[in-house]
Amino acid sequence: MEKRMNDILSVIKPVEDDRNKQLRAIQEIVNSIYFVGALRGATVKPFGSFASNLYAKSGDLDVSVELSTDSNFHTSKEKKQDVLRELMTALEFRGVATYMHFIPTARVPVLQYVSKLFGISCDISINNYPGRIKSRILYWVNTIDERFGDVVLLVKEWARSQNVNDPKNGTLNSYSLSLLVLFHFQTCEPSILPPMKEIYDVNIAGDITGMALYNERHLDEVCMANIAKFRRQNAGKRNESSLLQLITTFFLKFSHLDSYSSDVNIHLHGADQANPGQPTLDGQILLLVCRRSI
C-alpha cells in the first residue's frame, strides 16, 4: 500500500517542466496587462497551491493582479470588476485564453479561463492580499516536514476522484483540504507541526482583513525564525509515522469529527458565486480554530 501511494505521488507530483508551464502562463498575463490602461504599472503575483508549493501536475493557477495605485487593501469591488472586464478583453484580443468566465458578483470578483497554449486553468483576481498571505504561510508550513506536502497532494487527489474538491459546486477548495491536513499533523502524537501562533505570531486576522499592509519580507522573516526555534526545541522528538499511517489516521480522525467538538470550531465563510447571498462552501476559507492549533 505504501508503494501504491508513492506510485500515485510520482504521477501527480509536478516536475520542472510543469513548473515552467505555470510560470509561462503567468507571463501570458503579464504580457496582457500592457494592453490595459488601468493596469499600467501593475504586478502579477501567483498565490494558492502553486505559491505554496502544494500543487499537482493538473493544478489550477491562482493569480492576483496588484494595482500600482493602491498602496493598501482598499480597492472597491466596482473597480476590481471594471479592471477584470478590461483584462478579459485584452486576453481575448491576444488570443491566449479560451473558456473564459467572468464572475463579477462573487465575494472576490474573479476572471476564469484556460490558457490555450498550456491548458492550465487560471483564476485572476485583483489585489488579493488575503490569498497571498494564506498561501505564503502554507509555503512555510510545507518546509517543516516533507510528509505534509505529500499528504496534501494525496488528500486532494482523493477529493478530486470523489468530486468533493470543486468549490464551484459547493464542495471544499484546495485551501480547505490543506487546513484539514494541517490540523491532522498538529494533533498527531507526537505532533508533527506546531500551533499556527508558533509559526506566524502576528495578527493574521488583521493582515487578512486589510488592517495592516502586507509585508512579505517581514512574514518570511517571522516564519523562518519561528520554524528554526521549533526545530531546536523539538530536536530528537520526530514523529516517525509512515505516509501510509498518516493518510490512514487522517481519514479515521475526520470520520469521527464529533469527538473533536470540544476542541474544534469550524467556521465557513463565503457565498455562492451564482447566488451571492447564499452561504456555501464555494470559494471559501475553512478555518479550523482549535485549542491545539491556535
UniProtKB/TrEMBL annotation:
Molecular function in Gene Ontology: RNA uridylyltransferase activity
Any one Gene Ontology BP term: RNA 3'-end processing
Residue span(s) of domain Poly(A) RNA polymerase mitochondrial-like central palm: 2-139
One Pfam family linked to the record: MTPAP-like_central
Protein name, per record: Poly(A) RNA polymerase mitochondrial-like central palm domain-containing protein
Organism: Brachypodium distachyon (Purple false brome)
Lineage: Eukaryota, Viridiplantae, Streptophyta, Embryophyta, Tracheophyta
